[in-house]
Amino acid sequence: MRIAVVGSGYVGLVAAACFAELGHDIISVDSDTEKLTSLQAGILPIHEPLLGDLVERHRGRRLVFSASVPEAVKSSEVVFIAVGTPATESGEADLSYVEAVAREIARCLDGFRLVIEKSTVPVLTNEWIRRTLLAEGAAPGSFDVASNPEFMREGNGVTDFLYPDRIVIGADSDHAAHLLLTIYEPLISGSYAHQKDAVPAPPGARVPAVVISTTTKSAELIKHASNAFLAMKISFINAVSNVCEAIGADVMQVSCGIGEDSRIGRRFLRPGIGFGGSCFPKDLLAFRVIAQERGYDFRLLDEVMRINEEQRRSFVRKVRKALWTLKGKRLAVLGLAFKGGTDDIRESPAIALIRTLLKEGAGITAYDPAAMARAREEFTGDEIQLAQDPYQAAAGCDALLILADWEEFAILDLNRLRAALKYPTIIDGRNLYDPEMMAANGFSYYSIGRRDVVPAPGARVETATRS
Ligand code: UGA
Fold it and tell me: Which residue in 18, 244, 279, 397 is the catalytic one?
């Protein structure tokens, strides 16, 4: 099929490249001409594993980039809207970009087009898109609006897209549903996974993909409710981690014991410094507001957000507990992105924590495998120092803080790290190591929902092994 994808952020760009990978002809549209020039040259604006390979495979053939919505709409059968929906001051989703695209589409319709919401939008946005198209002069039979929410995670975007847990098709007409089923046919039949050059399936992938057909409104709601539920799981385990600390239990054991119940599931039960990113915080707020507007006071969501904020404060208390005073101390920070595997620092708990620690008078030397360029834009002048690797970050520091769950932070050379630090103290906000092993390696080690450990005085330091 000929498909236009308007918006080339994380969702739009991954969707465009993956639709091309499924055999469709894609025009990816963005108003940022600098970004387009880079994309045309094969330079990605984001860090997303496998995306570069797909863009390279299809660029200039099945995947072209354009700044023109009319050009893309005219040469496509369906149009995905994947522009940003940031939060406004009051927590609502700002839908002005969606509205602007809908207006542009209406002005250039020259035959039937299916307009599909891919951005995360509040329920009933499809009705606003319909109204906008009609208000701009589109004939009633010349379009339909459907919802096809995206559930990919940043850092796993390509594999999540090509091997989804489910594909939600929210359509109010058979024709719209049929078009969406056609687009996803290689995933629904399972034929894509058997292609010889297919992106390999991750362990546990569902092939063929499960399809959930719903009304457009239900599809919109599924997206917000899914993100809210996942955020609730994280806040739940973070709350449990506080109880574990208070009574001396181990949250990792508790999480495992809860998660093995198939009704609960293991995923999204990793305790830490609270969730961040451009989705959960924004979507919780927007979901809360839309429910309120419709007369339902969804207070459970307030509690999920409160626990999340408290988890960050609790981490700062942990740092103080480990170091006593912070003024004048130098702290090494590993991880600036909102989680491992991405360069995205939007709503990153690491950035918020660094800001708090700076206010308390600590100096920061930070390292992140992918988010350094974005961090340079975030922090002005010499607010923080940036290091080339974890060991350089640790050099001469009073303690090391682990704030993002990058794989490489879980396999550090502990002997080298201990030698680099002024004092062998680690405060791990992601529970990447086993406390006993850290104590045996000569570290004072503080983590989430587990007991603090300090090396026994005069203990022989063991050779480091991974947790
Ligand atoms: C999230 C959802 O997982 C995706 O399904 C959804 O498509 C996406 O939002 C979106 O709406 O666009 P994402 O924000 O990329 O994806 O990242 P997640 O992997 O969900 O992590 C979100 C935050 O929760 C991170 O800060 C992460 O560190 C934290 N987290 C996650 C935990 O603290 N514990 C966990 O067990 C899992």
Answer: 279
- Distance in Å, CA 46 to ligand 1 centroid: 17
CA of residue 334 to ligand 1 center, whole Å: 19
What is the token pair recorded at 445? 């080690």
pLDDT digits (tens, 9 = 90+) for 169-202: 999 999 999 999 999 999 999 999 999 999 999 9
Nearest to 80 by CA among 20, 17, 7: 7
Residues contacting residue 339 through CB under 8 Å, at least 6 positions apart: 154, 155, 276, 277, 404, 405
- CB proximity list for 63: less than 8 A, separation 6 or greater: 16, 17, 20, 26, 28, 55
Tokens 């974890």 locate to 390
pTM greater than 0.85 (yes/no): yes
Amino acid identity, position 29: V
What's residue 90's pLDDT? 86
Residues in Cβ contact with 419 at an 8 Å cutoff, skipping those fewer than 6 apart: none
Q: Give the list of residues 6+ apart from residue 460 with CB closer than 8 angstroms, or none.
A: none
pLDDT, tens digit (0-9, with 9 covering 90-100), for 1-33: 999 999 999 999 999 999 999 999 999 999 999
CA proximity to 54, closest of 168, 162, 187, 184: 162
Instruction: Spell out which residues line ligand 1, taking CB within 6 angstroms.
Output: 120, 150-154, 227, 230, 234, 268-270, 272, 275-277, 279-280, 338-339
* DSSP per residue, 242-261: HHHHHHT--HHHHHHHHHTS
Q: Is 256 a catalytic residue?
A: no
User: E-assigned strands of 97-183?
Assistant: 113-117, 143-147, 166-170
CA distance 456 to 20: 58
| b/e burial code for range 290-303 (CB count within 10 A of at least 16 → b) | bbeeeeeebeebee
